[in-house]
Amino acid sequence: MRLVIQGLSISYQQLTHIHQLSSRHHQQFIQIAEHAYYLPNQQEIPLEVKAFCDQQSLDVALVNDQHTLHNLGLAVMDMDSTLITIECIDEIADMQGLKPQVAAITESSMRGEIEFAESLRRRVALLQGLEATALQRVLDERLQLTPGAQAWIKACKENNIKTMLVSGGFDFFADRVKDMLGLTVAKANALEIIDGKLTGRLLGDIVDAQSKADYLERFRQELGLRQDQVVAIGDGANDLRMMAAAGSGVAYHAKPVVQQQATYALNHVNLEGLVNLFTPVTASSAHSCH
Question: What residues are annotated to the active site?
Answer without folding.
Answer: 78, 80
